[in-house]
Amino acid sequence: MPEGSSPQMGQSLLFLTDEQLRKGIEAMFFAYRGFTADPDRILAEKSYGRAHHRAIHFIHRSPGTTVNNLLSILGVTKQSLNRVLRTLIEDGLVASTVGTRDKRERHLHLTQEGAALERELSDAQRDRMRAAYRAAGPAAVVGFRQVLEAMMDDETRHHYEAMKEKPNER
Amino acid sequence: MPEGSSPQMGQSLLFLTDEQLRKGIEAMFFAYRGFTADPDRILAEKSYGRAHHRAIHFIHRSPGTTVNNLLSILGVTKQSLNRVLRTLIEDGLVASTVGTRDKRERHLHLTQEGAALERELSDAQRDRMRAAYRAAGPAAVVGFRQVLEAMMDDETRHHYEAMKEKPNER
DNA sequence: CTTGGAATGTCAACAAAGCTGACGTATTGT
DNA sequence: ACAATACGTCAGCTTTGTTGACATTCCAAG
Hints:
The structure is a homodimer. The first copy, chain A, is mainly α. Chain A contains seven helices and three strands, in the order H-H-E-H-H-E-E-H-H-H. The first copy, chain A, has a domain at 29-127: Winged helix-like DNA-binding domain superfamily/Winged helix DNA-binding domain (Arc Repressor Mutant, subunit A, Orthogonal Bundle), CATH 1.10.10.10. The first copy, chain A, has helices at residues 18-45, 50-61, 67-74, 78-90, 112-136, 138-151, 154-164, and strands at residues 65-66, 94-98, 106-110. In chain A, helix 1 packs antiparallel against helix 5 (112-136) and helix 2 crosses helix 5 (112-136). The first copy, chain A, is globular, with a radius of gyration of 20 Å. The structure holds a DNA duplex.
């Protein structure tokens, strides 16, 4: 019996067939390539990688964040983050300042130069996202975000939600 | 004039504000972690990586595909794919057979053992996708796919479309 | 029938970015 | 005083990507 055509299957459940799920999985895989393609090109010119982009993005989103906080958002080890962070600090894109209340902490900020690169990267990424949103329409965008949020791990979703309502002045 | 608050901006364009786009970008980043988390756990036990998963997935999807075809779908170099493919062949998960019409080509198939791993991986990934789909609902799923498709590079979308209507017997 | 080009494979070397484990230092809180 | 925390760093390893060079095999065109 061909899948997805079971007579006793409610009409409302047809979107949960293996076939539909498989398309979603492949769409996710292929779309992620497009998602990262434009920033990757810019980063390659400057000898940076995706890891630098992620650090820059979240430092921009949460100026003054600590290393530990960034660590849990990015989900990597401190050694891995440190390597990236060190080059960004050496290159003058990120400023690391000792905490005032707790001097063990380092607070991270983008310098002017860092903010400039952030803008270049996010402009490129937003351009593609905007084109996709425009092509798909507002209703599709709502669904897009709903599915993505439901796909996250609980801990990850917590980070996402925490940042959701923190608009960045620009 | 700050974007997103222009009085003459049509109501229908509010979903294209930088703020909305930023949320979409972060949702994409966080969701991709969840997307790969379950297969990654299974793969780690077996000393394989994501690259092995991708190869297995697309060999399953297109049995008998050539190395070159797989290369263009995955978007990596032949050296990189070859390393992964070699281990899969050595481990008896993938069979490589010389082409009949063109003996330069190798046709790739999953062995029984390879198909078993494929099933384990895709079951895990589908479980999460199914939960996300169920939570978001059918209308959201349509939008989800529309946005993802619009996000792909043209060449990538071509691969995606080519595989779209090729259901796999299971 | 020869030869050029295509498809494949392989060797070597390298880089990005993740990981573990160990250790040092400064600081904080108990 | 002492344990825990935050951070940085060294060393070493893994996966997965990259180039470049070169050999082999084979099809197809001249």
